[in-house]
């Protein structure tokens, strides 16, 4: 090690995926399970008759012949199919207060939950309880609440369509629309923004469109880590010579080059396919400026071409026949100066014009985007500017073109489709009345932020969680953790122990469920479930592994049990529905006509695509057209006047699945064995008198958010990184201590995890602190 070396911080030399990925899988698997079992698990993943990978929502190719290899999907499977168990004996040995001090990794690394458990205040331990008794107590507690709107029903996006449909049915018959869900923290800006623009809250492309595009834009997503199967598609697109333009404040390896594990020649020769043809390090929050700059470029090119008697650059037919609002958009673009665009984006006019030229020259363009776009104070504005850009050249609703939001959880889109929403449509509510004969509530319920506010203020006293780790995923643990400890009832349907379960309420239950990899047998035999991917493809998923414990129940069965215990006069035939999931699908079809012939259509390998109106140029907006929508100005957060401020964005490491930390290896960014780092541009370090490896404190700029004094992360190690100037990045979920609960996109309620104005300073008492860090405790990490 040279003097400049910093422990656990190095360079990653290789391409994304490749041999490194194979080795990482082998390591992950060795840690969790017998290899024989694993191979069997992987072989049936994303196969026509196997289970859907719980890793991400990227679609499968139509005819999957050999299994689709993906490092992170394999890790997700190994993590679920682990041989480790979190048993009643384990809970007898450790109090909840003791477990609270464990790291997030250690908690889940204990393995699969095996028994229903109830928290016992006297001993501060979780004790085993029978299913019947647990469900009876939960039912009684829910019935005792003065009003159904005092309960919150959270959903994480792994839940199948069948589980999610029953869950919303139960909560609505109980009497509430309080459905905070992980989508509220994820693609809510898409769900709110796109319906206003194009009439649907989903992407418009299919996987086949990627075979026909002439240019691809990738904005604010990191496929090498989060959608690794997408690399195969990007590789094919790149091999066709199609330009791929990337806007991202960090240089991410998966977007630069990729070695295909499906492709022996590349693996053996250590060669790789370059992915991005041009990679722009945009400032965090600078995407609106970039998008407006590209649109300005189009207008200029159009004017020039027309003045020279050339063809139109804008698609005037499309604009005339299919859209409204072009005049307002043109005024806004004219009023936006290039100086302001350069300042806000951190990119030069000529760079943006280059991207604009690529866009203008391409007949068919797809724009992909992820959390770098949605998790901003102007997340909805970001999404709508992407739609504007596509619409200017008619790039929506035709082959090889469209908008492609990359969904997160493997069924987060499906959960929404089958009714997990705090703002239900009349179609859904009327459908419930028609099919089940009860009157569901019509008032708007709580989203994720509103649910935490209600719990904080004592307006909600019960929280039921269908999976997930709400407390840790949510911003502002200082507020969220405290709030959750004040609940009367907390119910967690889960596969693994996590921190949310340790925020004990007066009554707390952990209900262990089957995972997607496992065999699910009900009264009529073995069951399949269904999921919907990012491209609206619905298909069946059937687990093949023996359940982790004989006491596990499926999610649909648990929900039905809860409903029967809570609603003595229920109108729903819960037992019958759960006996055969085909009957749940019949009910989904009865409520939502889009699922016509549901059971028949999932028999086909690969399933079927739900109708997406905008893909057919049918615009389900109030105007009946696609709407150009103006976002005034470029500033994400005009309140921030401090010139010293940097913008913090939170990021995922390579070895993590949301709040699940598989390991401490962020391979592509060169970080090993630790997560207590902050990525900074070298020039930003230098201008603050800091250098690579220094211990630093990151604190929130006081004028921007509430209670700034408490919002500080101490003793992080500064890592000089290839990141846009003015931006710094730290790992999610730890950095949530810096994100205030009221820091969110006001249109969609998506927490603004990607843009917190912060100050970066050398930690005081360097050496003393360095020693302290080595013995850091969880309380220090989360500040509670
Ligand atoms: N292995 C693995 N797979 C996953 C997940 C996981 O945690 N692990 N999570 C799943 C879920 S729920 C989701 S939502 C998806 C998330 O998938 P992604 O959307 O890819 O999410 P992130 O990696 O968090 O962020 C993506 C990129 O945004 C960039 N970024 C940050 N701020 C900005 C900005 O202001 N502008 C732009 N243009 N870019 C910015 C970051 O540098 C990062 O490369 O992945 C899903 N798949
Ligand atoms: N700062 C910051 N915060 C963020 C984000 C960010 O980028 N930055 N991203 C946000 C995003 S995009 C999302 S989607 C949320 C994620 O929020 P969540 O979806 O709530 O979190 P996960 O970490 O995916 O949930 C992990 C837990 O799910 C349970 N689980 C796993 N599989 C199953 C299953 O099959 N069934 C059941 N019932 N339980 C299961 C396990 O107990 C595990 O501990 O976090 C958000 N929070
Ligand atoms: Mo997500």
TrEMBL record:
UniProt GO molecular function: 4 iron, 4 sulfur cluster binding; formate dehydrogenase (NAD+) activity; molybdenum ion binding; molybdopterin cofactor binding
GO biological process terms, semicolon-separated: cellular respiration
Domain Molybdopterin dinucleotide-binding residue range list: 646-757
One Pfam family this sequence matches: Molydop_binding
* GO cellular component term, pick one: membrane
Keywords (alphabetical) are:
4Fe-4S, Iron, Iron-sulfur, Metal-binding, Molybdenum, Oxidoreductase
Cofactors required: [4Fe-4S] cluster; Mo-bis(molybdopterin guanine dinucleotide)
Give the Molybdopterin oxidoreductase domain ranges. 112-494
Tell me yes or no: is tRNA processing among this UniProt entry's keywords. Answer: no
Give TM regions.
none
Q: Which family does it belong to?
A: Belongs to the prokaryotic molybdopterin-containing oxidoreductase family.
Xref: NCBIfam families: Fdhalpha-like
This protein is called: Oxidoreductase alpha (Molybdopterin) subunit
The organism encoding this protein is: Bradyrhizobium canariense
């Amino acid at each position: 090690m040279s003097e400049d070396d910093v422990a656990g911080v190095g360079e990653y030399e290789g391409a994304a995926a490749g041999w490194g990925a194979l080795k990482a899988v082998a390591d992950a698997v060795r840690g969790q399970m017998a290899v024989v079992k694993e191979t069997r698990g992987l072989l049936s993943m994303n196969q026509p008759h196997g289970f859907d990978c719980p890793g991400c929502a990227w679609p499968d190719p139509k005819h999957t012949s050999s299994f689709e290899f993906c490092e992170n999907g394999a890790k997700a499977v190994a993590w679920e199919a682990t041989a480790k168990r979190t048993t009643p004996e384990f809970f007898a040995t450790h109090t909840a207060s003791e477990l609270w001090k464990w790291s997030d990794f250690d908690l889940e690394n204990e393995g699969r939950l095996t028994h229903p458990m109830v928290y016992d205040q006297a001993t501060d331990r979780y004790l085993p309880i029978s299913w019947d008794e647990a469900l009876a107590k939960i039912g009684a507690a829910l019935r005792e609440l003065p009003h159904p709107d005092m309960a919150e029903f959270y959903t994480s996006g792994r839940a199948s369509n069948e589980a999610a449909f029953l869950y919303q049915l139960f909560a609505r018959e109980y009497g509430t629309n309080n459905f905070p869900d992980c989508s509220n923290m994820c693609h809510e800006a898409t769900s709110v923004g796109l319906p206003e623009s194009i009439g649907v809250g989903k992407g418009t492309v299919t996987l086949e469109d990627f075979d026909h595009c002439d240019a691809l834009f990738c904005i604010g997503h990191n496929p090498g880590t989060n959608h690794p199967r997408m690399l195969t598609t990007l590789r094919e697109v790149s091999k066709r010579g199609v330009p791929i333009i990337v806007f991202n404040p960090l240089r991410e390896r998966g977007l630069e080059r990729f070695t295909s594990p499906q492709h022996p020649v590349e693996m053996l020769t250590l060669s790789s396919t370059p992915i991005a043809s041009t990679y722009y390090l945009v400032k965090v929050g600078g995407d609106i400026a970039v998008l407006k700059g590209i649109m300005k470029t189009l207008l200029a090119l159009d004017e020039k071409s027309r003045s020279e008697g050339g063809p139109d650059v804008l698609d005037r037919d499309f604009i005339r026949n299919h859209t409204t609002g072009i005049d307002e958009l043109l005024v806004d673009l004219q009023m936006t100066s290039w100086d302001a665009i350069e300042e806000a984006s951190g990119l030069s006019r000529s760079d943006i014009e280059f991207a604009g030229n690529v866009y203008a020259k391409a007949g068919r363009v797809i724009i992909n985007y992820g959390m770098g776009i949605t998790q901003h104070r102007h997340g909805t504005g970001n999404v709508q500017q992407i739609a504007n850009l596509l619409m200017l050249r008619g790039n929506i609703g035709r082959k090889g073109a469209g908008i492609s939001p990359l969904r997160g959880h493997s069924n987060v889109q499906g959960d929404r489709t089958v009714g997990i929403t705090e703002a239900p449509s009349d179609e859904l509510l009327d459908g419930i009345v028609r099919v089940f004969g009860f009157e569901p509530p019509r008032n708007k319920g709580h989203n994720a932020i509103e649910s935490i506010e209600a719990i904080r203020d004592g307006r909600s006293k019960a929280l039921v969680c269908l999976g997930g780790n709400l407390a840790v995923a949510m911003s502002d643990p200082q507020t969220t953790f405290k709030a959750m400890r004040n609940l009367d009832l907390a119910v967690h349907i889960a596969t693994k122990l996590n921190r949310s379960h340790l925020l004990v309420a007066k009554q707390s239950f952990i209900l262990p469920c089957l995972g997607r990899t496992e065999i699910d047998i009900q009264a009529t035999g073995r069951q399949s479930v269904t999921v919907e991917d990012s491209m609206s493809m619905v298909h069946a998923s059937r687990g093949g592994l023996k359940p982790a414990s004989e006491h596990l129940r499926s999610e649909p069965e648990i929900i039905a049990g809860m409903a029967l215990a809570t609603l003595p006069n229920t109108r729903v035939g819960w037992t019958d529905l759960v006996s055969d999931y085909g009957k749940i699908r019949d009910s989904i079809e009865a409520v939502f006509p889009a699922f016509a012939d549901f059971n028949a259509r999932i028999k086909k390998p690969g399933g079927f695509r739900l109708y997406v109106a905008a893909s057919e140029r049918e615009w389900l907006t109030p105007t009946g057209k696609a709407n150009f929508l103006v976002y005034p100005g470029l500033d994400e957060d005009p309140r921030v006047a401090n010139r010293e401020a940097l913008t913090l964005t939170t990021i995922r490491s390579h070895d993590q699945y949301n709040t699940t930390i598989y390991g401490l290896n962020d391979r592509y960014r060169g970080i090993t064995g630790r997560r207590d780092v902050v990525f900074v541009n070298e020039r930003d370090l230098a201008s603050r008198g800091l250098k690579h490896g220094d211990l630093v404190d990151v604190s929130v700029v006081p004028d921007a958010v509430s209670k700034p004094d408490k919002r500080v992360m101490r003793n992080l190690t500064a890592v000089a990184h290839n990141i846009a100037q003015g931006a710094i990045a730290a790992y999610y979920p730890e950095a949530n201590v810096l994100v205030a609960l009221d820091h969110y996109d006001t249109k969609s309620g998506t927490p603004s995890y990607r843009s917190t104005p912060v100050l970066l300073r050398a930690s005081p008492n360097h050496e003393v602190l360095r020693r302290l860090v080595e013995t850091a405790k969880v309380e220090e990490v989360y500040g509670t």
